[in-house]
Amino acid sequence: MRPADDGATLTPDRIAALFTAPAGAFLCARWGRPVAPVVFGLDDASLSVFRAAIAAVFAHARHPLAETDPDMGANLMVFAVRDWDELAELPDLDRLTGMQGLPERLAGQGADQYRLFRFDPDGSIRAAFAFLRLGGPLGQCHPAQLAESVAVNALLTWAHPVTPSQPLAGLIRAAYDPLLPACACDPSHALRLAARLQTPSSL
């Protein structure tokens, strides 16, 4: 992961803010099962770069990848489209996401990307969906850079999209400490994460 531009130290308060939604709810959840990624909408050259970058990010987190998920087949799904109206062509999109009218909603918001999660009974991440609109600024990103961002944002339930950085690399490894719970809803969890931070390592 690239160094952070501002070199900011991740204090407990900063960590808590990363997982606190605007309404005030704290949620820090990680994957509880191996991740089986699949990417739709990219050419073969970009797809190979994308897959390699995703694998590198999850290897950094020390979390396993798998060919398939026993319940869903693929549980990390990335959809790359030029414009949001292309999503309307996906079969069962409403059932897959649990949301109706997603393409229209994203177009109305002028969004370039969107991410959502599904969870297992213990609160750990069961599945993640990432939607990318490449007809705008994201289309100028290198596939490896874009894949790294998608993977980092799918690793944990960040309250807002994050930019890959060296401090976050350390935080991700701390969050995937097997001694910590896979899901925490109490802001005091930030103290436990901060206590495990060491000198961040790069991907």
Protein described:
With 203 residues, the chain is of the alpha/beta class. It has two domains: 1-30 and 156-203, no CATH class; 32-152, Chitobiase, domain 2 (2-Layer Sandwich), CATH 3.30.379. It has seven helices and six strands. The protein has helices spanning 12-18, 44-60, 93-97, 102-109, 143-155, 166-175, 189-196, and strands spanning 28-29, 37-40, 76-81, 113-119, 125-133, 183-184. Helix 2 links the parallel strand 2 and strand 3. Helix 1 crosses helix 7 (189-196) and helix 2 (44-60) runs parallel beside helix 5 (143-155). The longest helix is centred in the first third of the chain and has 17 residues, at 44-60. The protein starts with 11 loop residues before the first helix and ends in a 7-residue tail after the last helix. Residues 1-7 and 199-203 have low confidence and may be disordered.
- Into which percentage range does the β-strand content fall? 5-15%
Query: Outline, from the CA principal axes?
Result: globular
Q: State the CATH class of the largest domain.
A: Alpha Beta
Record field, number of beta strands: 6
For this structure, the CATH topology of the largest domain is: Chitobiase, domain 2
Gap between N and C termini: 5 Å
Overall pLDDT, averaged? 91
